[in-house]
């Protein structure tokens, strides 16, 4: 069932991702108008309307800010840090395999902050959770790349632990819990992108693991002003990522993977 759910979610998002869906609607509307069907104006307007909305307004920031400000890094930690859990998603597996060196994407802060935390807390374990999110797995997993990167950056091998089977956030939490076997009273830091932190905290709690949020990879300044007009492609990606998180939060709540629709501190 887990595999069926994973494949269905990946396949549906390939079509329903806002930027893709808007483009398909616009093309469909254009084809209908071209053939003389007047009602084709509506899908054409809807598709183009999404791009116009992102271009003309700070909708991308408005969608992202609630996610990125939901959890903040604590001013003081509840105790000595036992371990650091890093959720995958920052690794470019195909580029790593092609060129033979660890390749990171726009979420690279997940990896760099993990190393910084490991140096800041020399007694802490560093656990990376991530397998392959590809529909056709093959080649190195995210964990394989993380192993290369962390050892190249000087983290001792005896402090590293890896979970290499997970394909999504739910599996990140469940499978890394089995690897870490955390004990009551231990302090574990959870490192992931700030916009992904609400969903991550929800599934880790549901898995029975009390973790301390350590968000990274911010894409907004944290307010609702109008000073967020970056490059148009960047804003398209930002808006789509935020909507993906909201859809993920709803889906995880309906499937019982979190105990609330929008997990809070």
Automatic annotation (TrEMBL):
Transmembrane portions of the chain: 12-33, 45-65
GO annotation (BP), single: Gram-negative-bacterium-type cell wall biogenesis
Pfam families with a match to the protein in the record: DUF218 (PF02698)
DUF218 domain residues: 83-248
A single Gene Ontology CC term: plasma membrane
Top-level taxon: Bacteria
InterPro entries cross-referenced by the UniProt entry: Cell_Envelope_Assoc, DUF218, Rossmann-like_a/b/a_fold
Annotated keywords: Membrane, Transmembrane, Transmembrane helix
Protein name in UniProt: Uncharacterized SAM-binding protein YcdF, DUF218 family
Source organism (scientific name): Falsiroseomonas stagni DSM 19981
